[in-house]
Design goal:
40% of the residues lie in helices and 24% in strands. It has 235 residues and is of the alpha+beta class. The protein has two domains: 29-153, Immunoglobulins (Immunoglobulin-like); 155-206. The strands form three sheets. It has a six-stranded mixed sheet. It has a three-stranded antiparallel sheet with strand order 3-9-8, with no helix packed on it. It is elongated, with a radius of gyration of 44 Å. Its main location: membrane.
């Protein structure tokens, strides 16, 4: 009996290990979702807000990391060929990356609220390009990084863009009002025509019933004629 105990224990250990392997392999994994504004337009020399948030099934911890990268849209920039790290966040602290952004990037989000937004101030024309936001929340580390196109424009261009948006909004509202007015006129006209048609139908029915009393009068006249003597008078 004593010689069988090691075999029994060994079988239990092997079975437990196999079960753990199956559980770990078949465990469903959910990808982290990262969201950012598709485009941000700012005036040269002002502050630009690059918003980014994420959704994860795991609890946020000190192991959660945030990485912001930048790739310039100017071919003559050394940021043009590939993205460069401009900001890194881990263990509740932020670390600037490239020297060009060292004193201009500030973390303004709240990692516990899953907000990892940054602030860029002041903005320069050289900042035109794509900013990438990437978040890792172990063990939830798979996901697609979000991207934001930053456009730094002159004051005149910024004002012109705002004016264009306002004019477009007003024109759209007026178009909707015109369509509503046209639809209301069509409905009222249809109802009015239907009412006139019903009035004509009722009038025709009344007129068709009006000649009936004449037939009664004619019948009385014919009756009086039939009762009058038809022969000559005798003296």
């Amino acid at each position: 009996m004593e010689s069988k105990w090691p075999d029994t224990i060994r079988k239990r250990i092997l079975f437990t290990g196999f079960t753990l392997c199956v559980v770990l392999v078949t465990r469903p994994t959910s990808a982290i979702e990262i969201h950012a504004d598709p485009e941000v337009i700012v005036q040269n020399g002002t502050t630009g807000i690059l918003r980014c948030s994420f959704k994860s099934s795991e609890v946020v911890s000190s192991a959660t990391t945030v990485t912001w990268n930048f790739q310039s849209s100017h071919p003559d920039s050394h940021f043009y060929k590939s993205p460069y790290v401009i900001f890194y966040f881990t263990s509740g602290r932020g670390f600037p990356g490239s020297d060009e952004f060292k004193d201009r990037v500030q973390f303004i989000g709240d990692i516990n609220k899953r907000d990892v937004s940054i602030q860029l101030s002041p903005t320069y024309f050289s900042d035109n390009g794509t900013f990438f936001c990437d978040v890792k929340n172990p063990p939830d580390v798979t996901g697609t990084q979000a991207r934001t196109e930053l456009r730094v424009v002159l004051k005149e261009s910024y004002s012109q863009n705002n004016t264009t948006f306002i004019v477009a909004g007003v024109c759209g509202a007026l178009l909707v009002l015109v369509l509503i007015a046209v639809a209301a006129c069509i409905v009222m006209r249809v109802l009015h025509n239907r009412h006139d048609y019903e009035g004509c139908t009722s009038l025709e029915s009344v007129n068709s019933q009006a000649p009936q009393p004449r037939k009664k009068v004619e019948s009385r006249v014919e009756g009086s004629r039939s009762t009058s003597p038809s022969g000559p008078l005798q003296v």
